[in-house]
Amino acid sequence: MNDIQITPELVAEHGLTSEEYERIVKAMGREPNYTELGIYSVMWSEHCSYKSSRFHLKKLPTEAPWVIQGPGENAGVIDIGDGQAAIFKMESHNHPSYIEPYQGAATGVGGILRDVFTMGARPVANMNALRFGEPDHPKTRHLLAGVVEGIGGYGNCVGVPTVGGETNFDPSYNGNILVNAMTVGLADTDKIFYCAAAGVGNPVVYVGSKTGRDGIHGATMASAEFTEDSEEKRPTVQVGDPFTEKLLIEACLELMATDAIIAIQDMGAAGLTSSSVEMASKGGVGFELDLDKVPQREENMLPYEMMLSESQERMLMVLKPGREEMAQKIFEKWELDFAVIGHITDTGNLTLKFGGEVVGDMPINSLVEDAPEYERPYVPTPKREAVDVAPVNDLNKAVLDLVGGPNLCSRRWIWEQYDHMVMGDTIQRPGGDAAVVRVHGTDKALAISTDVTPRYCYADPVEGGRQAVAETWRNITAVGGTPLAITNCLNFGNPERKDIMGQFVGCLEGMGEACRALDYPIVSGNVSLYNETNGSGILPTPAIGGVGVMKNSDRMATIAFKDEGEAIVLIGETKNELGASLYQREILGEDAGAPPHVDLALERRNGDFVRALIENGQVTTCHDLSDGGLIAALADMAIAGGIGVNVAVDGDLPLHAALFSETQARYLIAADTEVAETIRKEAKDAGIPVEIIGATGGDRLRVNNDAVDIPMSELAKAHTDWMPKFMAKEILTTG
Amino acid sequence: MKSAVIVFPGSNCDRDMAVALEKITGTKPLMVWHQDYDFETVDFIALPGGFSYGDYLRCGAMSARSHVMKEVIKRANDGVPTLGICNGFQILTETGLLPGALMRNANLHFVCKDVAMTVENTDTLFTKDYAGGEEIIIPVAHHDGNYFADDDTLDRLEGEGQVAFKYTSDINGAQRQIAGITNARGNILGMMPHPERMIEPALGGSDGRKLFTSLMNTLN
Amino acid sequence: MKARIHVTLKNGVLDPQGKAIEHALGNMGFDGVNEARQGKFIELELAETDREKAETAVDEMCRKLLANTVIENYSIELE
Amino acid sequence: MKARIHVTLKNGVLDPQGKAIEHALGNMGFDGVNEARQGKFIELELAETDREKAETAVDEMCRKLLANTVIENYSIELE
Ligand SMILES: Nc1ncnc2c1ncn2[C@@H]1O[C@H](COP(=O)(O)OP(=O)(O)O)[C@@H](O)[C@H]1O
Ligand SMILES: [Mg+2]
Q1: CA–CA separation, B14 and B22 (whole Å)
Q2: What pTM did the predictor assign?
Q3: ipTM > 0.90, yes or no
Q4: Minimal Cα distance from C29: which residue of D?
């Protein structure tokens, strides 16, 4: 196979430009052979090299006293006190999920779990941020059903609770759905594992599943010599095996409790190639691999195939010499493959042997550091002016349409298919502002939320970037958590288009500002570009996953009204900010004007105030305001508690603005009337806008007498029914 | 009360079960790996939930044929109280210790939520502390909880008081809304809902506790 | 030798997957599907070369593992 | 008319179920099972009496619903 002639066509099929190919020849000092070309092509792909995004990612804030490991490892690590660390990351599996929703989403979950337990953490929570095309699009139901089933199929089986996420619909995702999965794990701060290999001569060990021809680089499919049974194109879709993943988690954690491991890395995208190159590169060493030793699922596998296979549920480790046998016993106990496939060298090269011959020999440095980096040209997104957004006659209908529509309706249909309670520490289940998961055996808990509002990012990338970060911060705050750090998954269209690149740069600028202002650094992340079909890209979607900690998990707030006759307190000032709002889009069918402005200082001041109220036990009912504004938040709280509410809003704003404006940095609190009065005074003293707007009770949602007046039963029904009704028309397959 | 929790490859509620047993009985259970089949004498055996062997082929099929189950079957037949939750229930039916089978949920979806069920028989060592007909809330989390047995078997189960719990509404298509059954002797209980997930207010309620206290009060 | 095994639900056992297929086909506009049943199809690659011995062994595998005879029937073909 | 449909994983696609069956049979002491693959077996009871029309219809059902052609093959027999 290595005698295949490298032609310009073959280079192009590997997704490399001719300039990039010249770069390879220069770095190697010769022409690469076929295997080497394959390896360069995946290492220099957008996915592995971040060639379009690296330059801008460098500008993001990644440090804080509690950050143990920022971007650059498999996942970010933060200190949560008492010698414990939270380890987390978010990743996309967009394209595979569009091709094959069940397996695409399932393997996405598998991949992100591995990123986290590779570092020594036991995964304790999964999240999923999903975007689908418009509900009416013929593929939407099928994709949604498959993705949800796949996420559940994998996460439920490995026994990690899926505790939250977000789900949006927008036509821009018709041909490019987004499936972003996040995992959070826990480890001891002195038991964290990294990927830097060390120690010339030390064994390189392969564990997990066998290698097959799964998911080998789409480009290579075109090469006719490639498959023996050429009647059938090899599927590029990988099938996940969550049972093996569960065994792999347990086996790795068992081995990690010993001192045998020097370095460990999961085999993710570009499998054996990227894992070995990254380990060697971080450690400044060379690797020699004997490919005959790689456990293989299929016959006659070639070096090219083994190096590029994306078979799932595999890991690579460097062990201390002499520990192989002990490690092998552990993996045998868990009925997993274990093979010493090579050793560390001092050559600085990745050397591949097969059938006794050297079939590849590449300088590790050139694979990583010589990878191209592009400062792609961009044009900033033009600023939008503020616009007047019209009122509607029938407010009741507008409220019902929003709360009972695709974007605000209950996601119960989704999260009831996820085991969100396994592990026995989920103390705030899906449906609230943030999921809360206890740190096992302690009083502490982690609060987790994923958010982004792509509408805003499209209207104004900088504001949208700020807002995405701020919303996770606010959601964590609203349950009583102290936000500590974020991960992200940056989903955009084609970076070679200047306007798309402008969105990317703008969003990152806003994100960076928000992280700095909120002391809320980025510790890990993932970039997914080229989410585009026939020249039309997705809305810019920088999904943010935030993690916070709660010292005392007994002091936690939820959104549900707890009692009749409680006062409702609105924290934060409401402005006329209906541009790019959900109201504007869903009710008026328009998208215009500037999105709400994010004032980060206000955000912080209001949030810190609210969190203190929860931490000191004054408040157990709280909800932040976001999509749909005040009225949507009130509806959520009333529905969750099964208690009606009656409020009065006055002031200078037109009523529709007061109800639907999406002004940021606002919260609703319900509390006993005396407590509410105290809170009002405290807020006033602190200079925080505050207003007692009404009280809980009754069985209707009412505003200003009967300006809005909807029976709770009708509201709850609209909210609950939309998704099951919508999905009932899905043609269920057979599982 | 000395308990054993059997751990199969792919079990994932083993820790939850151990935590519940320790919290309620005060004694840490023995965790028995499926290959350690000559484990010490215990008063009680729990088969936890999860996806043993990935639920591949049929849920519980492979675990039911494992070495450790030969020992469990022997002890259960000797009268040792044995509880199978969710995947544990599936394993018990696959071994034949309990009649019937658990099929794919009627709507084909995995379901994880709190469900209401009634305690049908309080005259078992697992249910003594509940009141007759008591309605309790316990979560389910399963893909294959659709209990099936032929009509004769169902009549017999109902007639002999072997139905321990019934859902108050249709959750998964189970015949006669059966959520849990015992063997004729009454020392083996299999149920789909997870009482170990409902043992403290922070988790959403405590209705699962009485199952464990019933056992403990009987055994001590 | 190759063994092809069909595992099907017994008559009278409700088949949720089969029902779902029936339903889905109806919704998709395929009329005239009176009934659908879903079973399993298992292929084994056996080292055994003696037909009779293979048959006995596979039958035992079916009884002991591959089929749940409370609800399922099985049939074996050898090739 | 009856249609018997076999849905099997394409060559090279990982078959976790098959792998687990192989493993379990080994553990139970059944030696000499070199490989196990698991697929689906679907039986349809059709109102159609014309063979050709039935064949066309079932083929469409397979492509559109019964098989996931990204990872699965199917074959149809009519009786
Ligand atoms: N795909 C999903 N998986 C699990 N939970 C989800 C998913 N989508 C939404 N949710 C849950 O539904 C609730 C509402 O989501 P969302 O409207 O995004 O909340 P917020 O506006 O507070 O960020 C949250 O608790 C969220 O975790
Ligand atoms: Mg919120």
Answers
A1: 12
A2: 0.95
A3: yes
A4: D61
